[in-house]
Amino acid sequence: MIPLLCRLLNFLNRFHFSLYVLLQASTVTARDVTACRGLGLKKMSLPFVPGFELVGTIQALGEHAKIEGFFQEGDRVACISNFGGGNSRFISIPASRLIKIPDTVKSTHAVCMLHDYMAALKALRLSRRNGSPFTGMNILITDGFSAIGQAIITLANLEGANIYCTADESKHAYLATLGAKCFPMEPEAWLPSASGTFDVVIDNTCLDSYSSSWFALNKKGTLVCIAPVYHFERHFDNGCGILDLKELHNRWAALKAKYVMTQTAFVNVVNEYDEDPDQYKQDLRYLMLILERGVITPKIAEKVCLEDVPDAQRLLYSGKSNGTIVCVPWIDN
User: Fold this and answer.
1) How much is the pLDDT for 39?
2) For 318, what's the count of Cα atoms within 13 Å in the CB-facing half-sphere?
3) Omega of the bond leading into 47 within 30 degrees of 0 (cis)
4) Which residue has the higher pLDDT, 282 or 240?
């Protein structure tokens, strides 16, 4: 009886500080795939609903949220959930996780800014030299075909950078239409001729613990490592069911990038909002501005209904999705 009472009090307290949001769009990402399949060292508690980035309209406010007065019913907001719940039609979420966005941008476009474009913008900002533009600079992006990779290409193109990327050979023709020059995915195929040539390398794959990306830098270059990295196609020993050696490998690489490697910066996509909410909100205002003005148009791989989210996750797991997968909860199957 006491645990049930504690859960009820926790729910009432959460609603007191929360807002009830009608969802218009949410992301389907590799993070959802790992959570739903129970992969990795950290497991989500059940029941679990995937979807961590979402856009919607406020329908009701808890009493504390009403007193604060920052949000009102009908406000259009972006939500950064730390517990999932986005692949649904409604969500109750703390006011601290919400950001107002313009009414004029499409929900399916706006939600793409919250994950892929936010990571791309932060990676580019960390690689700048004293705030100078990237005009004429050589930038290498590992896995340029990924949703984050394509977002980086789009933003770097706005500043006139010379863009190179690694990708499977079957994706080279498509990436060339985005203005990128392509290398094979395997570092041993491109590093011998590209060593020491790049001003910026943004590593989105961690194929060899960031070593090849670091050696590709010139003397004043900057390496930006984006984590977490999901390698569904790569096979590691599972540690006899006790340890996830794949995630341990990635965590060791992340620690090396953060604390050992020189000329290196690190971006954790999962913790972006919590590490600096004010910077995140400012970055999102900028992205919404250029989105509203038509300067950028995100690449959407698919728009899926709630019933098709498992199929969308399987597409992500296969590595064949081209762009961001967006869940639109009110469309029919």
Assistant:
1) 75
2) 9
3) yes
4) 282
CB-based contact 81:93 (threshold 8 Å): yes
- 3-state DSSP call for residue 324? strand
Compute the average pLDDT of residues 52-63. Answer: 94
pLDDT for res 63? 81
Distance, CA of 282 to CA of 330 (rounded, Å): 30
Amino acid at site 233: E
Q: What is the secondary structure of 158-194 as a DSSP string?
A: TTT-EEEEE--GGGHHHHHHTTEEEE-SSHHHHHHHH
pLDDT tens digit sequence for 208-233: 999 999 999 999 999 999 988 887 76
Measured CA distances, 224 to 5, 124, 187, 198 (Å) = 47, 8, 17, 12
Alpha carbons 111 and 105: distance in angstroms, whole number? 10
- Distance of alpha carbon 181 from alpha carbon 153, whole angstroms: 11
DSSP codes joined into one string, 218-246: EEEEEEEEEE----TTS----GGGT--HH
82 and 18 in contact (C-beta within 8 Å)? no
Distance of alpha carbon 54 from alpha carbon 65, whole angstroms: 19
